[in-house]
Design a protein that fits this description.
Quinone Oxidoreductase, Chain A, domain 1, Rossmann fold, 364 residues, six-stranded parallel β-sheet, globular, disordered N terminus, seven-stranded mixed β-sheet, 20 strands, binds zinc ion, 2 domains, alpha/beta
Amino acid sequence: MGHNDDEIKISRDEEEENLAAWLLGIKTLKIQPYRLPSLGPQDVKVRIKALGICGSDVHHFKTMRCANFIVKKPMVIGHECAGIIEEIGSEVKSLEVGDRVALEPGIGCRRCNFCKNGSYNLCPEMKFFGSPPTNGSLAHKVVHPANLCFKLPENVSLDEGAMCEPLSVGVHACRRATVGPETNVLIMGSGPIGLVTLLAARAFGAPRIVIVDVDGHRLSIAENLGADATVQVSTLEEDAGAEVVKIQNAMGSDIDVSFDCVGFNKTMSTALAATRSGGKVCLIGLAKSEMTVPLTPAAAREVDVIGIFRYRNTWPLCLEFLRTGKIDVKPLITHRFGFSQKEVEDAFETSAQGGNAIKVMFNL
Ligand SMILES: [Zn+2]
Ligand SMILES: [Zn+2]
């Protein structure tokens, strides 16, 4: 009896102490209590210690939607996170209380053909942190399947663990485009996703990487992260022809693979035109739901267009890249905030303004 009483007391205490950042309306975030789902036998409870703000979180914050996903009721925001195991389900063997872990945010159904074939990122029933209607992880604690929590190597920090999520996008894109030691890579866009794609492409062995943006400051960051050349472009469509030549000259040899990390008509048109015959253009940034691009001339040169949706099976490789120092994500973390009402608001404003912010990180 005494044991049961204790359990009831603990769960009541937790209800009071587990706070989360709820998105209540456009540009309205409030720290409020978050009652966790019960811990299943295969689940773990994680004390979140680090969480990065993603472009999609900012989109939800500004517009209450992202692509076809609409926020219809209050939702806990956030998905790029790492923390410390606080409790394990009765059947969990792989993790122990106190382990530091990076969390993969999407839970597939495990029953559909995509899940069964290993393409679980395409699962139509995916439950993904902070993608409506699924609550996110900007909270003191979350409950998550143990098999989506990856133990951090000793020399990898919790902040770096949280960076596995955006880095995974770059790793998945490089796998899809089969980047290797003979692949010269063009990257359109030097924002957070362009930069993780740069880091991933280098780790996959790309010998020469050219990165393109409209913003000179962002290009200087890319240079510091190891880009071989950068090209500053305009937003004007009529400049595209001359810019393609400039980009090809900056590469100095054939462009085998291009990643469009923006997703405007102009960035995609430039990528299609700049890529060599028989090469690949990988569309990562989805700024526009529809694009008008000269596809036919690219198709007539056997340029393959590859789509990207999030990632799959990338955490172990990301952690290996971080452990061995093949990738250093620390320079991408430009701003840090604590977890108070004021700081949550300031952090999202900072991330929404863009400017010099690359990755805005919470330390909880
Ligand atoms: Zn993200
Ligand atoms: Zn599924």
